[in-house]
Specification:
Largest sheet: 3 strands, parallel
Strand order of the largest sheet: 1-2-3
Distance between the termini: 30 Å
Structural class: mainly alpha
Bound molecules: iron/sulfur cluster
Number of strands: 5
Strand content: 5-15%
CATH superfamily of the largest domain: HUPs
Mean pLDDT: 93
Oligomer: single chain
Order of helices and strands: EHEHHEHHHHHEHEHHHHH
Number of helices: 14
CATH topology of the largest domain: Rossmann fold
Length: 327
């Protein structure tokens, strides 16, 4: 039987924003129609950088999973769980760390990059260096065939494949080498033109109400070379227009492009059109989120059920691992 299993996780960063909506979640929604999906909240991964600040992780998990459910990630179709509730991830991590050469981890491109960028945190820890091993454990503990990744995450998956191959070489064939399932994710810009991110304070959250959303859209940077309403503008230079491309119908967009270049529309009116489209698109999601949030135990129940299913699968793999290891 073809292995149609997929594993994908998200760090619990709290409420999700439009960047998640058009990136990971839209893909998950499609994948769950076709594959056997394991979606998890990667709370142990949060510890690799947030070990000194664990206060909000539990609440973040709840908010994030509520967003998943409201978006349509379906616990009947997919296994939804929290990484730390399935201890086999940690057990396999320990075993894989015994066979993973340190040089593989040191050459991981994001390792140095993150250490250089996150200077406020001391990331010279064993856990941070070893997070690709934990990532490998997250995936192969389910013997997943595929992992949805963007182009930039391919080096991580390559380490996972190398670790699986090394295990199989040393102890016998236990793990399939998971293949990359390349996913396209549009880069969603935040209000200020940088990548949309909670930590930059430039995000529109899925759970923002209509008024908050409108206010945020109206504050978006436009074409900075168009100081006056009478100056012709250029949508290709406009941060707000990157959202028009995602939310405004093609015909209307073509109209806006012409009116902007011909100085027939002002940025305020143009952003009002955008704000309305964003609000309209998100309103069914928001209604659903509110409805789900009214059942306080819902997220907990979904996660308990998910942890149960995931533990069964991961437990089976660990039996194979122990048999192969002979310890
Ligand atoms: S009119 Fe619209 S597309 Fe043109 S610069 Fe202003 S906000 Fe951007």
């Amino acid at each position: 039987m073809e292995n149609k299993r997929i594993v994908s996780g998200m760090r619990p960063t709290g409420k999700l924003h439009l960047g998640h909506f058009h990136g990971v979640l839209s893909n998950w929604l499609k994948l769950q129609q076709e594959f056997e999906c394991f979606f998890f909240a990667a709370d142990w991964h949060s510890l690799t950088t947030e070990y000194a600040n664990t206060e909000g992780i539990r609440d973040s998990i709840r908010e994030m999973v509520l967003d998943w459910l409201a978006f349509g990630i379906d616990p009947e179709k997919s296994t939804i769980f929290v990484q730390s509730q399935v201890p086999q991830h940690a057990e396999l991590n320990l075993i894989l760390s015994m066979i993973t050469p340190v040089s593989w981890l040191e050459r991981n491109p994001t390792y140095k990059e993150m250490q250089e960028n996150l200077t406020a945190k001391d990331l010279s820890t064993f856990g941070f260096l070893g997070y690709p091993v934990l990532m490998a454990s997250d995936i192969i503990v389910y013997k997943a065939a595929r992992v949805p990744v963007g182009q930039d995450q391919i080096p991580h998956l390559e380490i996972t494949r190398e670790i699986a191959r090394r295990f199989n070489y040393l102890y016998g064939e236990v793990f399939p080498e998971p293949a990359a399932l390349l996913t396209e994710t549009p880069k969603v810009l935040g209000l200020d033109g940088r990548k949309m991110s909670k930590s930059y304070g430039n995000a529109i959250f899925l759970s923002d109400n209509a008024e908050e959303t409108r206010k945020k859209v109206m504050s978006m940077v436009t074409d900075v070379q168009r100081p006056l309403r009478t100056d012709p503008g250029e949508p290709d230079r406009c941060v707000a227009f990157t959202l028009h491309s995602l939310y405004v119908a093609e015909e209307k967009r073509a109209e806006i492009v012409a009116s902007c270049r011909g100085a027939q529309i002002g940025c305020v009116d143009c952003k009002k059109i955008l704000a309305q489209s964003v609000v309209d698109t998100l309103s069914p999601f928001r209604a659903k989120r509110e409805e789900l949030a009214a059942t306080p135990s819902l997220v907990e129940d979904v996660l308990a059920e998910g942890a149960h299913k995931a533990t069964e699968e991961a437990g089976q793999t660990m039996k194979d691992v122990r048999a192969a290891l002979k310890v």
